[in-house]
Write a structure and sequence with these properties.
By secondary structure, the protein is α+β, with helices and mostly antiparallel strands. It has a 5-stranded antiparallel beta sheet with strand order 6-7-8-10-9. It is globular. This is PI3K/PI4K catalytic domain-containing protein.
């Protein structure tokens, strides 16, 4: 039976599932309900509409506008505070470490913080599963597991089970009477709930014929889902991170300013609709896009020319100097708030015939960087991105710029903020005794271990004291990093054998501070991979291995009580720990003393 209203105030009927049209069958009776007159009629079942998502190949991006569904705020509000379920390291940073178990010798051990420890373990399980899945999907298809659990639906169900266990642990903790971290665990529980809802939504789409886009990890798929993209949308977003995809979608409004003729011309030149939007918004057009093709640089929001071109340049280009392999120029740009003092480094095109080496550095060759197509721009941009993710302001802001396009020809280059101060090789020894200088140099060293920068020497990082009296350390020349063959973060250290004598780095530092430890522990494989988009899968895998090595080093320092507070860097005993073989601080302080004849 069905009930329809005949009189009285409007009744608001909830929509449950798929509903058919209002019943028009014969009336079986009338009466009153909630102060309103109603009649009861025979129920006529309706057939739900067929799902719009079917098992088919999705229409490519040039042929359709990608539109995200509006995310349900209730499903994503927790994800806005943290990207999915936060890491156990992040939770410990907010709530503190669990209490250590108490040993009573032969009488046994009294377990402490069992609920909190179980919660931390379940959070680790979630991230380990996603990390393992990302590793599996980064391998060529014929190397992947043939197990049923690695089907698309199987992977989702495994994640669902892992989240269920985490939710059970959170619920159990919240029911405890004496637990002291309920506020923090309650927030984690909301994050888990949001993830569970997203998994349910994805499984529902798959039941209606939706499929995973090829080679996407579950982490990436969940990131897209949090932003409101459906599985169908994701197929059209190949090569883009979720944030980049959102950028593309938001700028689809620019289509209204692109005439059919313009779109046709871009398509004829080999550019997708998304690339056309970025090229048009940038102002470099098809001609600039062809320079990207020539340089084999992907056209994405993080690589497109935005601020540095002929229209914003306010000075000539003055030759600043030549390194071992590159010439760089000093140049000023209008930043909208005054002149932006920068360095411009022209990019050399790759040799696709593989006869002439473009990158000739020893470190690049030793670490597995393709000498014929070294992708220097992507390595510099990626290094800047990793530094920002860690919160280490120790490399120049880096973007891709262009010059000469208006006069024909044109050239792409790397534009970097100019490093203040003097090279470490020319710095007064007294500066190395300052705590803030030591701290910033160690940040640079940790970054180098993570990105595999094995060419760091005293002439390619600068030290300055700003107008506020604070230390500023800036590492330049980040071309020879992120090679595929360097898996050990200590691999950048200079040795004496033919295999390592060309490296300029040092072993991992003997001391770090609590802030550094927190940032390294908090960086996930997914975080790192997002910073390295555009690099080869094997280069990203090597970086993930180095991240593991860094985290092991942090744990080792914790056991040795060598993680200090940020305000302790200036203490004498801290300075005594830094030596030539284990740090840039020790190496360059010793050389500064030798240079000024203070030691022999």
């Amino acid at each position: 039976m069905a009930i329809s209203q005949t009189s009285g105030p409007t009744l608001h009927q909830p929509t449950i599932g798929t509903t058919g049209p209002k019943s028009t069958g014969p009336s079986l009776g009338t009466g009153q309900w909630g102060g309103s007159g109603v009649k009861v009629v025979a129920f006529k079942p309706s057939t739900p509409p067929k799902p719009t998502t079917v098992d088919r190949s999705p229409k490519p991006l040039p042929g359709r506008n990608v539109e995200p569904r509006t995310p349900d705020y209730r499903l994503t509000r927790a994800a806005e505070r943290a990207p999915g379920v936060e890491t156990s390291a992040t939770l410990k940073g907010r709530a503190g470490d669990p209490k250590a178990d108490k040993s009573f010798g032969i009488f046994g051990v009294h377990k402490m913080s069992t609920g909190y420890k179980d919660m931390l373990a379940k959070m680790d399980d979630v991230h380990k599963f996603l990390s393992d899945d990302a590793h599996e999907m980064s391998m060529p298809p014929h190397y992947r597991s043939p197990m049923k659990s690695y089907t698309d639906s199987g992977r989702l169900h495994e994640l669902e089970n892992t989240l269920d266990f985490a939710m059970a642990s959170a619920n159990k903790y919240m029911k405890g009477r004496s637990h002291s971290h309920k506020t923090e665990i309650g927030e984690v529980r909301e994050q888990i709930k949001a993830e569970q809802k997203l998994v349910e939504s994805l499984l529902s789409q798959m039941k209606k014929g939706g499929t995973f886009p090829p080679d996407r990890s579950l982490s990436e798929i969940m990131d897209f889902a949090r932003l409101g993209f459906t599985l169908d949308n994701m197929h059209d977003l190949h090569g883009l991170t979720p944030a980049q995809a959102r950028h593309i979608v938001e700028n689809n409004l620019l289509d209204r300013n692109l005439t059919p003729t313009q779109l046709h011309d871009y398509g004829k030149a080999g550019f997708t609709r998304g690339e056309a939007i970025l090229l048009e918004k940038s102002g470099i057009g098809i001609e600039g896009g062809l320079l990207y093709r020539k340089m084999d640089i992907p056209i994405r929001p993080d690589t497109i020319v935005t601020s540095f071109d002929e229209t914003t340049r306010t000075s000539g280009m003055t030759k600043l100097g030549s390194g071992a392999f590159n010439t760089v120029y000093s140049v000023d740009y209008d930043s909208g708030g005054g002149d932006y003092h920068a360095v411009y480094k022209p990019l050399s095109p790759p040799d696709l015939t593989r006869t002439t080496k473009v990158e000739k550095g020893w470190v690049a060759a030793r670490t597995g960087i393709d000498p014929y197509n070294p992708q220097i721009a992507l390595r510099n941009v990626a290094t800047c991105s990793v530094a920002k993710k860690l919160g280490f302001d120790v490399v120049p802001h880096t973007e891709i710029g262009i010059r000469g396009l208006s006069s024909g020809g044109g050239e792409l280059g790397i534009v970097m903020s100019r490093a203040p101060g003097n090279p470490a090789a020319k710095t007064d020894p007294a500066l190395f005794e300052r705590g803030d200088v030591r701290r910033e140099i160690v940040k640079l060293q940790l970054l180098d271990h993570l990105v595999g920068q094995g060419d760091r020497h005293g002439n390619n990082y600068f030290i300055a004291i700003d107008k506020n009296g604070q230390a500023v350390v800036t590492g330049i020349d980040n071309d020879q990093c992120l090679g595929k063959d360097l898996h050990d973060p200590n691999g950048i250290a200079q040795g004496t054998s033919p295999l390592d004598k060309g490296f300029r780095g040092r072993k991992m530092p003997p001391i770090i501070d609590t802030d550094m430890a927190s940032m390294i522990r908090g960086m996930t494989d997914t975080d790192l991979a997002d910073c390295l988009k555009g690099l080869k899968p094997e280069e990203i895998r090597a970086a993930k291995d180095r991240l593991v090595g860094l985290k092991v080093h942090v744990s080792d320092l914790q056991m040795k009580n060598r993680i200090i507070k940020p305000e302790q860097w200036g203490q004498d005993w801290v300075g005594a720990e830094f030596r030539n073989e284990n740090s840039y601080v020790g190496r360059d302080y010793e050389r500064a003393l030798q240079r000024t004849n203070q030691i022999i």
